TrEMBL record, chain A:
This is Simple sugar ABC transporter permease protein. It holds the Pfam family BPD_transp_2. It is found in: Cell membrane. InterPro entries: ABC_transp_permease. Its main location: membrane. It comes from Streptomyces graminofaciens. The keyword S-adenosyl-L-methionine does not apply. CDD domains: TM_PBP1_transp_TpRbsC_like. Keywords: Cell membrane, Membrane, Transmembrane, Transmembrane helix. The chain crosses the membrane at residues 38-56, 63-82, 88-111, 123-149, 180-202, 214-240. The keyword Nucleotidyltransferase does not apply.
Length: 294, 350
């Protein structure tokens, strides 16, 4: 009764938002921008998706608006970290805080409710084979990102910009342009992740509903060494942990224990991989911004 | 203060960011149909007036405590994002100590404070060990560790330690006398003095001791200080332990003040950790600046409630303001270089 078809389905549902956001994070990492604003961009995506879907009656417009809004929001990171050379970590933290405040503020200003907006007339995404179309899109995005990074000239240039910006500039590749593009694409992907969370997995908006998923996505980037397939495996691990947690809750384990499960599993996986990687590479200097791809 | 320093302060990115936050906040207020002058007036009178100052000081106790907890590692360029977990563990440990200690009440209070600090310190040290031993970045290990700690405390308050017969997820009330003394009728307790004392110690350590110098230099240039013989792993561990102890102290103070028990969510819901982090970032972790920034954000937080009452603008606006200030600040500058070359930067700032 523990392992039936429901478990993989709910794991797939749980992994979709993480996967989309983590792919965005991986692209940024490859371009040499540490993006920890994933959580905030995702949350803004959730809110925009719900608001647009409610006012227009179309969840598709909600998805589109979420992608655009999160992309616009990601410009804060692009301008701040790339053009003005600000601290990406501090910016990311501030963007996450701003998104929590802004969405709670707008929730009360626009809908006059506090906590959760849950209306029966709010249209969610249709399901195809039990999953929203965005879930399939996420899987397709993994393939596209993997091919682009390994085969296409853009991907090679993106990696070049991340690894050796000066060398890339000498070859006539503008590092700033590639960094902007990576950050904007991560915004779009986080917006889609938010839309999936608010209109695919459930159909509502509640304050801080991303609840650390953006951070899990940041960890997934590290776990997966910023490789699309690696990120997919990491997101899968999280999805299984979350789904198994729900299942165990159904079997009588307290909610607090299962709430913590995904974070504990993620942290454990991170310990194992980094410890092993460390042993293998012994002592190499970590020269990049985050040590993620080292 | 000389004229030169005054213009320097006014032209600094901090002044610019705060001003930008206030202006953007005014636009938000105007956008919701409220009069910005009335709203900001309500923030000030509501937080600094006779009715609000007590509330501001008791909120300020927690905000300053968390700001110090985050500022101390930040001074060395380390960011502790696990404040919530460390604070909550400190709070639940203090509650358990307060409930079951066989000692007389005054000693129990001291013991509960120490136990809370020890719990926070131990948990923060765990995050430091994750970085030192396993290579997991501190930013991530401290944050991820926070979630299970909050869940554990929540579980304890809802099941094994739950007050029998209560519908709220809370422990029993601490025994008579197991509480921090309050000033008069206010909600301000001796906890404020403890936190201010911690700020004074931090100032002293930062300005007058070799360790404080090492910490500042590590923040400015980790490679150089490593070359000069400062052992980074040990420093990380010590700074995180002090940071966690302060976060645990804030949790313990919260439990030993009204409502004199551990109530699930009452420590984390007001967002002291994030407000504290914002204050520490705004002040670039400098001791006096952290105190000032904490007071500023406590005024915003408490004043936000008054603003909500008079203008019906949601109090979440103050959270938006805090974040905007930091966005501007971060976008203007590279963080660790702030303490360097401020003089050269003055000309180009603003």
């Amino acid at each position: 009764m523990f392992f039936d078809t429901d478990l993989p389905m709910s794991a797939l549902r749980a992994l979709t938002p993480i996967l989309l956001a983590a792919l965005g994070g991986a692209l940024c990492e490859r371009a040499g921008v540490f993006n920890i604003g994933l959580e905030g961009m995702m949350l803004l995506g959730c809110f925009t998706a719900v608001t647009t879907s409610w006012f227009t009656g179309s969840p598709w417009l909600g998805v589109l608006a979420a992608a655009l809004a999160a992309a616009a929001y990601s410009l804060v990171l692009a301008v701040g970290a790339v053009t003005l050379r600000g601290d990406a970590v501090v910016l990311g933290i501030a963007m996450n805080l701003l998104a929590v405040g802004l969405t709670s503020f707008l929730l009360r200003t626009i809908f006059g409710v506090q906590g959760t907006f849950d209306d029966p007339s709010l249209a969610g995404l249709p399901l195809i084979g039990g999953l929203s179309p965005l879930a399939y899109l996420a899987w397709a995005a993994v393939g596209v990102a993997a091919l682009a990074l390994s085969r296409h000239v853009w991907g090679l240039r993106l990696r070049g910009v991340g690894e050796a910006p000066d060398a890339a500039a000498t070859l006539g590749v503008s590092p700033a342009k590639y960094k902007y593009a990576a950050v904007l694409v991560s915004g779009v992907l986080c917006g889609l992740a938010g839309a999936q969370l608010a209109l695919g997995n459930v159909t509502l908006f509640s304050e801080n509903m991303t609840a650390g998923r953006g951070w899990i996505a940041v960890v997934a980037v590290m776990l997966g060494r910023a490789l699309p397939l690696g990120v997919l495996l990491a997101a899968l691990l999280f999805g299984i942990a979350e789904a198994a947690g729900f299942r165990l809750q159904g079997l009588g384990l307290p909610q607090q224990a299962t709430d913590a499960a995904p974070y504990v599993v993620t942290l454990g996986a991170l310990f194992l991989t980094t410890a092993r990687r460390r042993r293998r590479t012994s002592r190499t200097d970590r020269t990049d911004s985050t040590g993620v791809t080292a | 203060m000389t004229r030169d320093r005054l213009t320097g302060a006014l032209r600094s990115p901090v002044a610019f960011s705060v001003l930008a936050g206030v202006v953007i906040g005014a636009l938000f207020l105007a956008g919701t149909g409220a009069d910005p002058v009335t709203a900001y007036g309500a923030v000030l009178t509501g937080s600094l007036g006779a009715d609000g100052i007590g509330s501001t000081l008791s909120t300020g106790t927690s905000v300053l405590g968390m700001a110090l907890a985050l500022a101390i590692p930040l001074r060395a360029g380390l960011i502790n994002l696990g404040g919530d977990g460390q604070m909550v563990l400190g709070g639940i440990t203090a509650a358990v100590t307060g409930l079951y200690s066989p000692l007389p009440a005054p000693l129990t209070v001291v013991l509960a404070l120490l136990a809370g600090m020890a719990a926070g310190a131990g948990y923060a040290a765990l995050a430091a060990l994750c970085e030192n031993r396993l290579g997991v970045p501190l930013l991530v290990s401290s944050l991820l560790l926070s979630y299970p700690a909050v869940s554990l405390a929540s579980y304890l308050a809802r099941y094994p330690l739950k007050e029998p017969g209560s519908s709220l997820p809370q422990t029993r009330r601490l025994p008579e006398g197991v509480a921090l003394p309050a000033f008069g009728e206010s909600t301000v307790t001796v906890g404020l003095l403890l936190v201010v004392l911690a700020a004074a110690l931090y100032w002293f350590a930062d300005r007058r001791t070799a360790l404080g110098y090492e910490i500042r230099m590590t923040g400015l240039n980790p490679r150089f200080t490593a070359y000069a013989g400062v052992e980074r792993a040990g420093l990380t561990l010590r700074l995180m332990a002090v940071s966690g102890a302060l976060a645990g102290l804030v949790g313990a103070i919260g439990v030993l003040s009204f409502p004199y028990r551990f109530l699930d969510g009452s420590l984390t819901a007001p967002g002291y950790t994030w407000t504290g982090l914002t204050a520490a970032l705004l002040a670039a972790a400098a001791p006096l600046g952290t105190v000032l920034a904490s007071f500023f954000f406590a005024v915003l937080q408490v004043g936000g409630l008054a603003m909500e009452r008079t203008t019906e603008v949601p109090r979440e606006l103050t959270q938006v303001l805090q974040a905007i200030v930091i966005v501007f600040l971060a976008a203007r500058l590279r963080f660790p270089r702030r303490w360097f070359g401020r003089r050269n930067r003055q000309q180009e700032a603003v």
